[in-house]
């Protein structure tokens, strides 16, 4: 069976999730400043960007749509290879000239591959609790949220931990389940795997590394004679601070090491910003089109009408009221950072006045990966009735978005009609960009 209703076990048992859970809607308890954690870029833990604001008087939420990134995970196989390349060089050094590096001699790399870590499961559980507390009036035991997940194990596990948190917050009176897993082998609006002609962000990230990392790399090489680390090695070694901290739930010695090298985390963070902007964001010609399918599904739910899309959607699934119901008040989808970046870009969120520079970061930019897609990051689209008019509000990490593209007011509200009208890129199937995804060079 390629699709259908599913009920998979959580990565962790409920008792394990509860044991590792962090306080709802608060920063992680790692003894590391929030400012540093926000410089971990896509590996930053979730932080709310603002305190949630209830809708203005006269407005009642009647539908909510959540798309959420999986919780904190181990490095992917590719990241593991890159991290180990630099680590192996360092561990070949007999004597370091800086005592801060001595821990590396006995360091054992024992991280898993791609899977959710206990802290990531707790993040998802927490998010489920928060969602019930905030939107409990939209659900009941007979009106459960409809929940989908991309087929990746870490995404499925995030979804099931979220449902456990939701049920726990309701004292088990409302017990949602993961209704549908979208197979990665087919059309999948929760994964960015359907645009083979799309480029990547390597040129822009490498250009930045050549500007920002030589001094950092030089400090590392000075402490480790003859190691000859590259700027790429240094960049990947910084990520060990984040991965080890979220997996061990204690501050890694690599964090302390790079805290002693000024600018390390800031340089790493901007590399992550460039990676997403030029990967599936505005800086990649075929980036935003990879979010079109999800946006069209969102429009269908908001307007209670059939999905109209010729891009990533699975037409069989989206045509069935079992696998794509249109009568729900609560939807939750679980996905990946790259796909969510594509969705933001397709919608028109976080648009920059100019492309991100590969040499001089704009301190006023709103495109910061740790704010857009941290571990367990989410976008919430609320549909509201305001004095008889249907309106839409969008929140990312609890921060209300201005929605200037559809005439958003001071409360971030625009009419549903104007919101739908503003999504011309999605409603036109990407204005020809989706066809370019499959173009071959002559």
Automatic annotation (TrEMBL):
Disulfide linkage: 59-386, 195-437, 241-255, 406-414
Active site residues according to the UniProt entry: 70 (nucleophile), 337 (proton donor)
Example of a GO MF term: inositol hexakisphosphate 3-phosphatase activity
Record InterPro entries: Acid_Pase_AS, His_Pase_clade-2, His_PPase_superfam, Histidine_acid_Pase_euk
Reaction(s) catalysed (UniProt annotation): 1D-myo-inositol 1,2-bisphosphate + H2O = 1D-myo-inositol 2-phosphate + phosphate; 1D-myo-inositol 1,2,5,6-tetrakisphosphate + H2O = 1D-myo-inositol 1,2,6-trisphosphate + phosphate; 1D-myo-inositol 1,2,6-trisphosphate + H2O = 1D-myo-inositol 1,2-bisphosphate + phosphate; 1D-myo-inositol hexakisphosphate + H2O = 1D-myo-inositol 1,2,4,5,6-pentakisphosphate + phosphate
PROSITE patterns, per database record: HIS_ACID_PHOSPHAT_1 (PS00616), HIS_ACID_PHOSPHAT_2 (PS00778)
A Gene Ontology cellular-component term: extracellular region
Keyword Hydrolase in annotation: yes
Subcellular location: Secreted
Pfam family name, one: His_Phos_2
Signal sequence region: 1-19
UniProt entry keywords in alphabetical sequence: Disulfide bond, Glycoprotein, Hydrolase, Secreted, Signal
The protein's assembly and partners: Monomer.
Protein name as catalogued: Phytase A
